[in-house]
Predict the structure.
Amino acid sequence: MNCENCGAPIGPGQIRCTKCGSRIAANVPPSPAVQPSSAQAPPPIPPAIPPYAPQGPVMMVPAVRTTAPGATASLVFGLLALFCCGALGGIIAIVLGAGANRKIAQNPALYDGGGAATTGIILGIIAIIINAIWLIACLATGQWYFVNNL
Ligand SMILES: [Zn+2]
């Protein structure tokens, strides 16, 4: 580069022209008072996290879900086991309910009925427990009580 005033060649970092003595604006460092070296620019503010879209399209897609196969049957067998069919109905209710819950877990957008399936499983377990208590009571006393099962 050259001096703006006289055109003499100016070396890099040279503040004043050696020929005419005029200041070389491009090479004059900024005043230390204006920009102290210790001061640093404030860290950039991270962009605000975009808020989660409420009721996003993911929740809107499954407009119609079908009850998972076995969910209703599990509930029916659970009720039957509880009131008449005993442990066998309870086992069926648990198997059907577990299968329905597995289908729901694999494809929650397609199937619902998890409440019925879980209720069926619980009823089946209760029925089996009742039968076990009943069986133990019969074995303990040596008599067969025909209460509500068998
Ligand atoms: Zn000059």
The first strand starts at residue 66 and ends at 67. The mean pLDDT is 79. The helical segments are 57-60, 71-85, 87-106, 114-141.
